[in-house]
Structures are given as C-alpha cells and as structure tokens.
Amino acid sequence: MKRQFVTLLGARGAAGIAQAAVLVLVARWMQVADYGALMAWAGILLVACAIADVGIGNYVLVEQPKGHDTHVRRALKVNTATSVGGGVLMAAVGWFVAPTGLEAAFAVLAIAAFLEKNTDTLTYLAIANKNQVVPAASILIRRLGNLAVTPLLYFLGVDAALAYATGYALTCAIAQVHVRLTVARPYPPGEVEAPWTVLRSSLRFMVELASGQARMLDTFIVATVAGPAAAGAYAAGVRLANPFALIAGTLANVLTPHVSSADHETSRRLARRLAVGTAGLAVASVPAALIIAPLVAKVLGEGYEASEGVFAWALPAIVFVGMATAFAGFLQARGHATFVAIAAATNAVVLLSLVAVGAALVGAAGAAAGLCTAAFLYCSVLAVRALRV
Q1: Is this structure's pTM higher than 0.85?
Q2: Whole-number Cα distances in Å, 209 to 124, 143, 204, 333
Q3: What angle do CA 171, 241, 216 make, to 5 degrees?
Q4: What is the pLDDT of residue 163?
C-alpha cells in the first residue's frame, strides 16, 4: 500500500502543480468576472458529474477487492452510459446558459468533465487491483497535457476560456483511450449483475460524493451573493489551494480497497493514523497559508488582490476537505455508507449556507472563512465516527 500511495502521490503532486499553473495562466488572461463565471460553471459540472456517476467510482473501489466481478462489470457499463448521456446534456445546457462569448467554452468544458468522470472510474478499478502505473500515467496525461496544450492554443489566437476547455477535452480524450486499452479491455468478460442490484448499493456512495462536490457550487453562490468579481477572486484563491488536498485524496483512494478487506484491529489502527495525520496537516497549514497568501496577488496579477485573504482561509479548509474524503472512504469501506451519506448531505447545506453568509458580510474572504468552518466541522464528525467503529 505504501508503494502505491507514494507513486500516486508523486504523480498527483506533479498533476496538481500543473493544474494550478494552467489555472493561474487562464486567470491572468481573462477578466476577473469572466474567470469567475467559468469557474462557477466548472463547479456546477463537478456536481453534475458526481450525480451522474451514481456512486459507481467508490462502489468499484469497494467491490473489486472482494472479487465481485459481475457487479463491477455492470458498474462499468452504467458508468459509460451516464458519462455519454450526461456529457451531451450538459454541453447543451452550457451553450444556452453561458454569458456572451463563453458559449463554446462552456459546452466543450462539459464534454471534458464527463470524459474525465468516466476515465476516473476506470482508474479506480486499476487502483483496486493495486496497479500503480496506470492511475499515475492517466492523471499526468490529463494535467501535464493540458498545461502544454492550453498555452499553445492561446498563443495561436484561441480565446483563453476556449483554449483551456479544448486543452482539457483533448487530453481527457487521450487519457480515455489510455485507460480503455490498459484497464477496460483486459478486464475478463463474463456475466453481469442486474442494474438495480448495483445501483441499490452505489447510490449510497453517490450521496456522499455529490454532497462533497456540492462545495464546488461555492463560486456560483459567491457570484450570486457578492457579484462576479468577488466570485473570480474567490475561485482563484481556492483553486490555488486545491493541490494541497492531493495527499488526502490519494490516501482515500489507496486506503479504501485495503480497509474493505482488513480485520477490525487493523482498521482501528488505520483510523488512528488518519486522525494523527489530519491534526498534523491542519497545524502545518496555518503558518503555510500566512506565508504564501501575500504572494497570491503577485502570481495571479492585477485585480486579484482579494484572493490573498481567500487563500489564507482556503488552505486549511482544503486540508479538512481532503481528510474528510479519506475518513469518508474509510467509513464506507467499513460498511457505514449510510452514515457518511447523511453527514455529507448535511455538510453540503451547512457549507453553502456559511459560504453565502460570509460572502454577504465580508465578500470573497468571508466566503472562504465559511468554507473553512464547514470543512472543519464535517471532518471532525467523520473522524470521531471513524475512531469509534
């Protein structure tokens, strides 16, 4: 498990830096308000993908180590169908709801997001099979590829938003071919379980995933309450902090298959280690945020001064969000998916409410403070539960 964790963390670390770099470039090339609109749409797409996924990604992580091949085969078929249907639907929606000049970017970004959803589920199958190379290669193809393609398209004269969306879509398409050849095609054919048998279990995972991704509606909430400029500053600051969640996200993906087949004592030991790791990362994030925050506006450029205060709150918030994902995966693997679903749904309401209140009272930085408060509460609830099971 340690080797797989280190391999995936290294790949996702490089991918996270590449993603942050390309978003910084796009933010510098776009007006703050337009960037806020684009990131708000990206957040809506993440929620749509989580709903369309119907919990299949986490379901595969839990069922594959148990040898439930008939369930996994059906899950992969459902995943493909929802990816195609969701991508087409959201591309059409994006075209009609986009601000003037961003129609094509919104539509292409929707296609890219659903391509990535499908790709991620197949990489989860590889992770469940303890494959280190395919998941690492897949995320590097997408993120490093986008960092290369987006600036190229922009300097060839393509609008910044469309350049980003097109680069994202092209590299996700390449990654899709890669996982189809390395994961889907070699998977042994055979009987498949009835769709409802799979969905009955996977839908519980969907509630947690969709509720967790509901936080990505935060930029839309800020735009509604405080205006597009505040949303742009908020989105830029939060997305600069997102790569710091890589450790927790990687840990959750690697940990879940192991916990699902571990004995009680081993699971409790893992829960204690997660709790200690969460405390350590949270403490370290505070001085790191205070040191890095003054540099944010210099990196993003003129118009993003408010992003400094956002980043100072967002960094510890993202740590709590990431570790909550790890605790949620642990609890799901231990058979507590219903508890996680209820906690996640409650957290979604609390988080978006606190973001709205903070944005209304203080602006972008207030919204980030609301995000941090909600993330801390959610992570604490899951941690306490994990230590008791």
Answers
A1: no
A2: 14, 22, 9, 14
A3: 70
A4: 97
